[in-house]
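pasting AcrR family transcriptional regulator for the record, 213 residues
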Amino acid sequence: MQTATPAARKMPRPRADALRNRERIVTAAREMFVEFGPEVPLDEIARRAGVGNATVYRNFPDRDALVREVVCSVMDRTVRAAEQALNESGDAFEALERFAHTAADERISALCPMVSSTFDRNHPDLEDARRRAERLVAQLMDRAKAAGQLRADVEYGDLMVGVAQLSRPPAGTGCLNADRFVHRHLQLFLDGMRAPAPTVLPGTAVTVEDLRR
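structre below
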């Protein structure tokens, strides 16, 4: 007599409303990390997301889990923007500019407070996303340098630190008010990266290794 093989159990797929709530939490957290830093109270994030505290903790058991999800989300968006820019034909510096403005819109400045955070920056998910972003952005910059359009004395860190700082509201100012000036000031910064360079920059180029220290 043959014994019937039990059918493999299928894991239930998350409901659409549960997925929407998770995305709302991550979006709210990304915005509030930019405005107030990663120590913003989780109940404030829940309030902005329009969900209850229990929903936040059901998706993210602690602050580190939420911070990590926000960082991965921002890095993934940055990767997609870099991939799209690399796939574009035409002017290499214009592609770099489009990437930088998109990165600003994606709130890459949310990554700034994470540098001093106590969460695990060497988590495998973070390492993978970070390395992909570094590789793609470096390719964008190398292409612009090869075309003679990007000054030779700048590196990955110079671009990314500049974009992050310019897309983060100054302390004590309203985020929505500061948003009005982001792309104007970012373009001024990008124009300063064009070759030929009219001046010599103080110090040395900021590399990937500098950012990891």
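The radius of gyration is 20 Å.
Residues 15-61 form a domain with the Arc Repressor Mutant, subunit A fold (CATH 1.10.10.60).
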